[in-house]
Specification:
single chain; about 150 residues; alpha+beta; about 10% strand
């Protein structure tokens, strides 16, 4: 993404959503939700943007493992916690935030997020490094039993 995004002079109403601007999956997800996020007062910017990396203290060349959400008060939430900060501000998605308050639910949401984030580069083009496991037929195994 080659769009120049200048530092904010006026903070957005709800905050900023920062994402990996070199990840095709991340770009597609943000493009899909851009209208919804803008409608609810969020602005988007890649983590590789100079003012973003300076403000958050992240290296644009280092591993960018999760989406970050910065609220107007300066608090920053990452990953599943960041997504929950967004959904709690969208009236029809608010029940997801409420469900996350059930004991243990946030741990499950964080695990799901980490799994998707770890495989995000494979979700668009597939992972060439991973070879499919050989298939075994259940009937062969059954008839080979003593």
């Amino acid at each position: 993404m080659n769009k120049a995004i200048s530092p904010p002079t006026v903070p957005p109403a709800q905050g900023w959503v920062f994402y990996d601007g070199q990840c095709l999956f991340c770009i597609r997800v943000m493009d899909s939700f851009r209208g919804l996020l803008h409608q609810h007062g969020f602005e988007l910017a890649p983590l590789q943007t100079q003012w973003v990396s300076a403000r958050l203290g992240v290296s644009p060349h280092g591993p960018l493992n999760e989406l970050l959400v910065m609220l107007p008060d300066g608090k920053v939430f990452g990953g599943a916690d960041g997504i929950l900060q967004i959904v709690r501000r969208v009236w029809w998605a608010w029940p997801m935030f409420a469900l996350a308050q059930i004991p243990g639910a946030i741990l499950l949401l964080r695990a799901i997020y980490r799994r998707i984030a770890a495989n995000r580069h494979c979700l668009i083009k597939g992972c060439p490094a991973k070879k499919p496991l050989p298939r075994r037929h259940i009937t062969t195994t059954f008839f080979e039993m003593p």
